[in-house]
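hi! just following up on the protien thing from before. the input was this:
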Amino acid sequence: MVKADNKAVIYRKVPDEYPIPGEHLVVESKELDENLGENEVLTRNLYFSLDPYLRNRMKPAESFKPDYTTRYEVGKTIDNYAVGEVVASKNPKYPVGAVVSGFLGLEEYTRVLANQSLAIIEDARTSKLSLSHHVGALGMPGITAYGSLLEIGKPKAGETIYVSAASGAVGQLVGQIAKRLGLRVIGSAGSDEKVEYLLKELKFDAAFNHRGGNILKSLRAAAPEGIDIYYENVGGEALDAALEVLNHHGRIVASGMITGYNTEAPYAYKNLINIVSRRLKIEGFISDDFSEETKANFERDVKAWLLSGEIVYREDVTFGLEKAPEAFLGLYQGKNFGKAVVKIADL
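and the predicted 3d structure came back as:
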């Protein structure tokens, strides 16, 4: 049977800068073929993750670098990490009624092909935690924060870490984990409200509004003895300031550089020579890079911390597919407060 009313967010046009709702991303109803092939399943989608890296999937073919992901096709539904319920199945691994996480479309229903893998959320109907955490603290942003801080940052008690975009999906976890490990934690965010959240709810030792003045001056004031680790989410002026304030043998964990995602004019860095003179280490990664031991420890630790309330995790939930393109744009304008999630339906 073919359904003609599967509402979806379609990638309509390659953006030059910001992805504009109604121009680059549009909400349309499309046909969905429910005649499943061998080992295929159909999901009814519940939560969808909005992440900064998705902007890189919108680059034109001539400038796209397929280092770790695929490019979106114009005219197709955008996809990313999501949670859904299996409503039809020809795959014995995923029975009807199973709640799964994996790559699904930003749409009401997704036909999952035989070569795609999903993870069953065993406690989906019994856990006290929201299913949305499986695209946030218990999903890609969570393992990004946990794995990269431990394996690349190599934090030691008594050190100082600076986290940019510290109230975001990854930054808020990095800061709280660092506090648990005995570090002094400094964060920056894009509003006074977000700074207050870092200080009062996440218990950062210092925080400042990066829109409120000179980042280097603010960072120096917060870290008069320098920083040992910079957790990089932003790039641009924040990275330049960190390079100036990092102590000898400091580490830069390069998780993202959102300031450069929507412009063709690259930032002119001034302090790169400090990498040489201060013997700094800078390392990028993707979320699949970490050891199996780290992945297992992440699943155990972060889930336990959330359930016990030892860490908190703020989400910015958009309700409904119709509002998803606007929420996606807001991600790059700093409008989201916490992990950006689209809620499509209830379980």
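DSSP finds eight helices and 15 strands in the chain.
The CA atoms of residues 145 and 174 lie 5 Å apart.
cheers
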